[in-house]
Design brief:
By secondary structure, the chain is of the alpha/beta class. Helices cover 48% and strands 10% of the residues.
């Protein structure tokens, strides 16, 4: 059995896979069918092939998610395929918080270490449907490019990663895509689709435009259009992923997409189930300054001896231990290095670690993680891009 270790860059507590930079193209006004399909289906020679056993691959994939539907299907997938296709879609909708930046990079690096191909669906048209950036597609695409720049800066291994722009891919394969969307809409009633609208950050009782009602049908179609074997999105996207499995059963498809749903990082204020881009103090953002990080962590909800719904412990477990595999906390008894979250949590609940001990250690570790991103956006085109993004009005 392989052991988990830091990779060669000293980042990411995951299997050691050499980082390979991928040239990322910006969205083009017009994409040809040949260039779009080349992006969607990379040549085998470009891919990293894992030598891990099926058991090891399954264990890594399960470590990414809080829920897997189903583990048996996941095992069958790794047994049958050397390069399963994993899909995640994201709306370019504003500044990137640390869950989308660091936690996503950690999870991608884990999955590509098993040989998976990771297809990022840059959902620019979806953001337009959902009225992000007031529906301005050029602004939305600028935000998409900014997000890709962040993942490059933070150390995401790009060898098996493909970024696909929805507007380009759908235009290049319109008949294939829209036939899927229409069929999914045809076999589901309105109530079933409305229940999925929570994937857009909205309640199923909210008043929505016709475009937003159409959104779940399109996201369900993405799974099959991208030929995804695994849907690797957050737990908040579970309903539409289940819709895709139901559609696969309805159409008697041989394989249903496996769902691996990752953890939703808590917001930094009391009672916040997840972070919000519209509330700057609810999250650490990827290009926050050293002072911003210290201030937000200092103010964050962190009740003594309480682990449940404690965002600082949540950051420690999923971001810091996920990235470095360790954290050093200085208590009244001196510095202690933790490599196991359960041990750290037990010491916190017992009172051995006080919030006043934990918060400075978390601030220091988060700032070290974010420093490469700050440097990346401190000059040249990335700096100009960030300055442009910061001027955009974030709309819900």
């Amino acid at each position: 059995m392989s052991t988990v270790k830091l990779n060669k860059t000293g980042k990411f507590s995951t299997f050691d896979v050499p980082s390979v930079n991928q040239k990322i193209s910006k969205p083009k006004a017009v994409a040809t069918a040949s260039t779009a399909r080349a992006a969607a289906d990379p040549a085998d020679g470009d891919l990293f092939t894992s030598t891990l056993s099926v058991d090891e691959k399954v264990a890594i994939a399960l470590s990414v998610g809080e829920e897997a539907i189903t583990e048996e299907e996941l095992r069958g997938l790794f047994t049958a395929k050397e390069h399963p296709v994993v899909y995640d879609g994201f709306e370019p909708s504003g500044r990137m918080h640390i869950a989308q930046g660091v936690l996503r990079a950690i999870n991608v690096n884990k999955l590509t270490s098993t040989g998976c191909i990771f297809k990022f669906w840059v959902a620019d048209w979806f953001a337009q449907l959902n009225n992000k950036m007031d529906g301005d597609l050029k602004k939305i695409q600028a935000v998409g490019q900014y997000m890709i720049e962040i993942w490059k800066a933070i150390g995401m291994d790009m060898r098996n990663v493909r970024f696909l722009w929805a507007s380009e891919e759908i235009n290049a394969h319109a008949e294939e895509y829209w036939t899927l969307v229409m069929d999914i809409a045809r076999v589901n009633n309105l109530a079933r689709i409305q229940r999925c609208c929570t994937i857009m950050g909205r309640k199923d009782t909210d008043e929505m435009s016709a475009a937003q009602i159409f959104y779940p049908c399109m996201q369900c179609a993405d799974v099959f259009f991208l030929k995804a074997d695994i849907c690797q999105l957050g737990l908040d996207q579970r309903k539409v992923n289940m819709l895709a499995r139901e559609y696969a059963a309805e159409k008697k498809k041989k394989f249903k997409p496996v769902i691996v749903s990752h953890h939703m990082l808590l917001g930094m204020k009391e009672g916040q189930e997840k972070m919000s881009k519209s509330d700057p103090d609810s999250a650490i953002f990827m290009e926050d300054s050293v002072e911003d990080v210290r201030r937000k962590v200092k103010k964050a909800y962190c009740p003594p001896q309480v682990a449940e719904k404690n965002p600082i412990l949540d950051y420690t477990k999923h971001i810091i231990l996920g990235y470095y595999g360790k954290i050093t906390i200085t208590t009244s008894e001196g510095p202690v290095e933790y490599t196991n979250y359960d041990t750290l949590e037990a010491d916190y609940v017992s009172g051995k670690i006080h919030p006043g001990d934990l918060k400075p250690a978390v601030s220091e570790a988060l700032n070290r993680i974010l420093e490469p991103v700050r440097q990346h956006f401190s000059q040249g085109e990335p700096k100009a891009l960030l300055e442009k993004i910061k001027k955009f009005k974030v709309t819900r």
